[in-house]
């Protein structure tokens, strides 16, 4: 009796750290919203004559996206079952791949605006952008690892290819701010 109570308690504790495929899909939806907000704020920043308010909006959107990615990484790493089913793995990977054009657009856009950030009257904005890029890269690395770690065997290669493409895009942008 006592033993089975301990077992039930242990199961409850374990389940409180587990997440479902639906949690992961909800996280990806949130990441998608935050990524578009970030990309839109970068696009809205003109290549000359932008304001400090606009630059800070980009920073705030980058921080918000980072939090969403971190939540997604936590849930994806704790998803049960692991690996997820072939159908769920396909659907999760499709959702991630759908983000790729916007990630690339945002990263190219931020590089294109480096001179405009440097020209702002308050110094330090390029350094802030550099830090935001480093943080987003680190968060993205974590969710990529969790995605690969929970992928069914038949999708590991495709998930790894996606990771390599996104990492390369980050490396290019980070190098521009080095
Ligand atoms: C991105 O983050 C990963 C994991 O922290 C790191 O290994 C990699 O060097 C980072 N990329 C760049 C360009 O800094």
Task: Describe the overall structure.
The protein has 178 residues and is mostly helical. The chain contains 8 helices and no strands. α2 runs parallel beside α4, α5 packs parallel to α8 (156-176) and α7 (125-150) runs antiparallel to α8. It starts with a helix and ends with a helix. The model has no long low-confidence stretch (mean pLDDT 93). The structure holds 2-acetamido-2-deoxy-beta-D-glucopyranose. 2-acetamido-2-deoxy-beta-D-glucopyranose binds at residues 137-138, 141, 170-171, 174.
Please supply descriptive tags for the structure shown above:
178 residues; mainly alpha; elongated; binds 2-acetamido-2-deoxy-beta-D-glucopyranose; signal; Hydrophobic surface binding protein; Cell_wall_mannoprotein_1
Give a short synopsis of this structure.
By secondary structure, this protein is mostly helical. Helix content is 80%, strand content 0%. The chain has one domain.
Q: Sum up the overall morphology in one term.
A: elongated
- Derived from helix and strand composition plus strand pairing, the structural class reads mainly alpha
Please indicate the percent range of residues in DSSP E strands (runs of 2 or more).
Answer: under 5%
Q: How much helix is in the residues? A: over 70%
Number of contiguous helices: 8
Name the ligand types. Answer: 2-acetamido-2-deoxy-beta-D-glucopyranose
Radius of gyration equals 19 Å
The total of beta strands comes to 0
Number of structural units classed as domains = 1
The biggest beta sheet is recorded as:
none
**For the residues shown, what is the average pLDDT?**
93
